[in-house]
Specification:
Distance between the termini of chain B: 30 Å
Distance between the termini of chain A: 7 Å
Oligomer: heterodimer
Strand order of the largest sheet of chain B: 1-2
Strand order of the largest sheet of chain A: 6-7-8-3-9-10
Shape of chain B: globular
Largest sheet of chain A: 6 strands, mixed
Number of helices of chain A: 10
Largest sheet of chain B: 2 strands, antiparallel
Shape of chain A: globular
CATH architecture of the largest domain in chain A: 3-Layer(aba) Sandwich
Structural class of chain B: mainly alpha
Helix content of chain A: 25-40%
Strand content of chain A: 15-25%
Order of helices and strands of chain B: HHHHHHHHEEHHHHHHH
Chain lengths: 265, 353
C-alpha cells in the first residue's frame, strides 16, 4: 500500500538502498526509507537493528557507504549535521546534544547565533544576546514550556524533562521540513512524556514531518501515522497502527512473525 | 498548544520532588556554590584581594606601595600572557605543554631574523608572530584532525619546538646592547612609564589589554560560546552544529600567536634574546590557570580568573621574598593553592546534576 501511496505523493525525505558498514558489522543493509509530508512516522526495531545508524545517515551525522538520500525528491548528500540543518532537517538526539555549561538561549542558538546589527555585529562579532533571549522565550512560550523562570540559566541546572523540552523546542524552532526525534521520551517520567507527545502533535500541526524513533510502543502507536519496522539493518515493512496490534509489531520486530500479504512494501 | 495546563513538565513542583533534603540541609552552602558556579572568577579574585591585604598588613608600606604592586604586574606579565593562551586551550578540555617552547622559539626567530639575515625588524617580528601561530596550528591540527590527545601532542611538540629552537639559534644569545642599538622595537614591551609612584611597562599594558579582548571574545562572540561548548561536550557541540575541528584549530593557533606575543614581551623583559629563557613558562602558566579556577575538564572558568591566578602567584612570590623567607615556602604555598583550587572546582561542579 505504501508503494502505491508513494506514487501519488512524493516523500519529503526518502532513502534508497543505503548501506553502512562498521568494519565487518553491517549496520544498514540496502535500507529504504520514506517519510511523507506532514506525517509522523514511527520507527521501531530491536536493539542493534540499525535504527540509530539510519537516523544518523539521514541527519548528516554519518555518511552512508552507498545509496541515495532525497529531500523533496532532490538528491542530497550531507557531510555534516550543519548541512542537513541548513536544508531544513533538525534532529533531537537521544543524548540531546546540549552544552550543559551554556545558558538556555545560548543552547537554542548554538551554531546559528544572531549578531548585533551594524558594525558592532559585523566587525566586532558582538552577539545580540537580548534578541536571542527574547526569541528563545517566545519559542518556549509558544510550545507551552515557559515555566522556566530565567532564560539565562545554564542547562545543567534543569531537570531531564526540561532539557528534553529545550532540545525539542530548538528543533521545532528551526526545523522547517523534517524533525527527527531519537527516543525523546526514554529518559522521562509519565507526565513529562505526555508533554513531549503533545509537543510532537503541535509540531505536526505546523505542517512539519516527524520521524519518531522509540522503544515505547504505546507512544509510537499513539502519535504515529505509519510505523516503519526496522530489522537486521533494513526496513522489514511499514504498518498502519490502526490495523495492527502492538503485539504484532513486536512479533515483526523480533522476527517471531513475518509480514505477509498485500499490505506490505 | 492544546493545553494551558499548570503541570507542564518544565516545572518541578517542590512538593512533588523526592530527593530534596540536600537543599534544606545545606541551604547556605548551596547558595554559595551556585553563586561560585555562575561567577568562576570569584574565588581567585577573593584570594588575590585577601592575600594582598594580608601581605600589606604584615609588610606595611614597603609592600602596599604603588611601586611594589606594579612591580608584581611587571614580574607577572610574561607568565600572565602565556596563561591567557593556556586558558583558551584548557577551556576546550585540552592542555598545551608547548606554550613556553613556542614563546622562546618565536622570540629567537624575531632576534635571529633581524641579526642573522638583516631583515627589517618589523618583518622579523611579523615572522616570529607568524611562526608562533603556525606552531600553535600544528598542535591544533594534530588534536582536532588526527585526534591525538592534547597532552601527548604538546608533550611531543614541546620537545620538538625546544630542540628546533636550540638547533636554529646554535645556543647563541643576542646581546641586549646590540638590540638596543640596532633593533629597539624588539625591546618595546620592556619600556617603562610612570604614573605617580606606579611603574608600568608596555608589556603589562598589553597583558591587561589582551585579557580584556579575550574576555570579550569568549563572552560576547559566537566563537567564544563555541569554545565553551567544545570544552563542555565536543560530541554535543558537533551535533548542535558547531564546527568543532575549526574551533579547536583556531584555539590552538590563537594560543600560539599569543605565546609569540609573549616571546616579544620576553625580549623586552630580559633585554636580550636567549634561547634558554622561559623554561618554566608552561608549568607556571598551567599553575596560574588552575589557581584561576579554570577547570581542567574544560568548559568552565573565565579568562579573568586566569589573570587573577597569575597575579596571586606574583603576590606570593614578591610578598614572601620581602618577608625574607626561604623561597621554597613560595613553591610550597603555590602547591597548596593548586590543590585547593582543584578541590573547589570539584565541589562547584557538583552543582551540575
Amino acid at each position: 500500500m505504501d508503494q502505491k501511496g508513494g506514487s501519488l505523493m512524493t516523500p519529503i525525505l526518502s532513502a534508497r538502498q543505503i548501506t553502512k558498514k562498521f568494519g565487518r558489522v553491517v549496520a544498514l543493509d540496502n535500507c529504504d526509507f520514506d517519510l511523507m509530508p506532514g506525517e509522523v512516522l514511527g520507527v521501531i526495531g530491536d536493539n542493534g537493528a540499525g535504527k540509530s545508524t539510519l537516523i544518523k545517515a539521514l541527519s548528516g551525522a554519518l555518511r552512508p557507504d552507498h545509496g541515495e538520500v532525497r529531500l523533496e525528491g532532490e538528491l542530497v548528500q550531507f557531510h555534516e549535521p550543519l548541512e542537513a540543518r541548513r536544508a531544513g532537517i533538525e534532529t533531537v538526539y537521544q543524548n540531546l546534544a546540549l552544552s550543559p555549561a551554556l545558558s538556555i538561549a545560548d543552547n537554542m542558538f548554538l551554531g546559528r547565533e544572531i549578531r548585533k546589527p551594524g558594525p558592532l555585529g559585523s566587525v566586532f562579532r558582538f552577539l545580540d544576546r537580548s534578541e536571542m533571549e527574547a526569541q528563545s522565550r517566545a519559542l518556549l512560550t509558544e510550545l507551552g514550556l515557559l515555566t522556566i523562570q530565567n532564560i539565562g540559566q545554564t542547562v545543567e541546572t534543569l531537570s531531564g524533562g526540561q532539557r528534553q523540552g529545550i532540545a525539542v523546542a530548538r528543533a521545532a524552532a528551526f526545523g522547517s521540513k523534517v524533525i527527527i526525534m531519537d527516543e525523546p521520551t526514554a529518559a522521562l517520567g509519565v507526565k513529562e512524556s505526555r508533554r513531549v507527545l503533545e509537543l510532537i502533535r503541535d509540531v505536526q500541526s505546523k505542517g512539519i514531518s516527524i520521524v519518531l524513533i522509540s522503544h515505547n510502543m504505546p507512544h509510537v502507536f499513539e502519535v504515529a501515522s505509519r510505523i516503519h519496522i526496522h530489522r537486521l539493518g533494513k526496513r522489514l515493512c511499514i504498518i498502519d497502527p490502526k490495523k495492527y496490534e502492538m503485539s504484532d509489531a513486536v512479533a515483526f520486530m523480533t522476527g517471531a512473525k513475518s509480514p505477509e500479504g498485500p499490505d506490505f512494501a | 498548544m492544546t493545553s494551558g495546563d499548570q503541570d507542564s513538565f518544565a516545572v518541578e513542583h517542590p512538593d512533588d520532588t523526592v530527593a530534596s533534603f540536600e537543599e534544606e540541609g545545606n541551604h547556605f552552602a548551596n547558595q554559595v556554590r551556585n553563586w561560585l558556579h555562575q561567577t568562576p572568577a570569584a574565588v581567585p579574585l577573593i584570594v588575590l584581594v585577601i592575600s594582598t591585604i594580608v601581605f600589606g598588613l604584615v609588610l606595611g608600606a614597603k609592600f602596599f606601595s604603588p611601586f611594589a604592586l606594579t612591580l608584581i604586574l611587571q614580574q607577572v606579565a610574561i607568565v600572565g600572557i602565556v596563561a591567557l593562551a593556556q586558558s583558551l586551550v584548557i577551556l576546550t578540555a585540552g592542555i598545551d605543554l608547548s606554550v613556553g617552547a613556542i614563546m622562546v622559539f618565536s622570540s629567537v626567530i624575531m632576534g635571529q631574523f633581524t641579526f642573522r639575515y638583516g631583515l627589517p625588524v618589523e618583518v622579523s617580528v611579523f615572522c616570529g608572530l607568524f611562526a608562533g601561530t603556525l606552531m600553535g596550528a600544528i598542535n591544533g591540527i594534530l588534536v582536532a584532525i588526527v585526534r591525538l590527545p592534547p597532552f601527548i601532542v604538546t608533550l611531543g611538540t614541546w620537545q620538538i619546538f625546544l630542540a628546533a629552537n636550540f638547533l636554529y639559534s646554535e645556543n647563541e644569545t643576542i646581546r641586549g646592547s646590540d638590540i638596543a642599538d640596532q633593533a629597539p622595537l624588539l625591546q618595546f614591551f620592556g619600556e617603562k612609564f610612570k604614573i605617580g609612584g606606579a611603574v608600568f611597562t608596555y608589556g603589562v599594558v598589553l597583558m591587561l589589554l589582551l585579557a580584556v579582548v579575550l574576555a570579550y571574545m569568549l563572552r560576547f562572540t559566537a566563537w567564544g560560546r563555541h569554545v565553551y561548548a567544545v570544552g563542555d561536550d565536543p560530541d554535543a557541540a558537533e551535533l548542535s552544529g558547531v564546527r568543532t575541528k575549526r574551533v579547536l584549530i583556531s584555539v590552538y593557533a590563537l594560543s600560539g600567536l599569543i605565546c609569540a606575543v609573549a616571546g616579544w614581551v620576553l625580549i623586552g623583559r630580559i633585554g636580550s634574546v636567549s634561547p634558554t629563557s622561559g623554561q618554566l613558562a608552561n608549568i607556571e602558566a598551567i599553575t596560574a590557570v588552575v589557581i584561576g579556577g579554570i577547570s581542567l575538564f574544560g568548559g568552565r572558568g573565565s579568562i579573568l580568573g586566569s589573570l587573577c591566578g597569575a597575579l596571586i602567584v606574583g603576590v606570593f612570590s614578591l610578598g614572601l621574598r620581602m618577608v625574607g623567607t626561604d623561597p621554597q615556602w613560595t613553591y610550597l604555598l603555590i602547591g597548596l593553592l593548586i590543590i585547593l583550587a582543584v578541590g573547589i572546582d570539584q565541589w562547584i561542579r557538583k552543582v551540575a546534576v
